[in-house]
Amino acid sequence: HLSELSINSQGGPSVANMSLSPNLSPDAKQSSPLISPLLNDPSCIRTDDEEEVKRKRFPTEKAYFIAKEVATTERTYLKDLEVITSWFQSAVNKEDCMPEALKNLIFSNFEPLHKFHSGFLKETEQRLALW
């Protein structure tokens, strides 16, 4: 915005060019978006403690959001696994279309899979809470 100002012989800005720049205040100083009554009011100044609480409550680290996404995905996966497993077991049991030995082999793998993902979700959520 300095190129919009022309300097007169006394070293001050020219009045004619001041009206061309919408970002200038009447006293010819460039207005700043950071100047507001709240920022200039001493009673509204934030302390370092408030900033630390805000940072803890709303972490901005990319790794935190990735871990949060992993936990959300794991929670969804676990619920889907439960639904699919129960629907599959009930359908197979109703139609009796599979030999008992095959059912036992397939269904015996669901419990360890569910147990592992339940533990992983619990650990992920605990770590996020401590983050």
Automatic annotation (TrEMBL):
Source organism superkingdom: Eukaryota
UniProt-listed InterPro entries: DBL_dom_sf, DH_dom, RAC1-GEF
Bias kind Polar residues: ranges: 1-34
UniProt-annotated stretches for the region Disordered: 1-52
Protein name per Swiss-Prot or TrEMBL: FARP1 protein
PROSITE patterns in alphabetical order: DH_2
Organism phylogeny: Eukaryota, Metazoa, Chordata, Craniata, Vertebrata
GN (gene name): Farp1_1
Pfam family, one: RhoGEF
Molecular function terms, GO-annotated: guanyl-nucleotide exchange factor activity
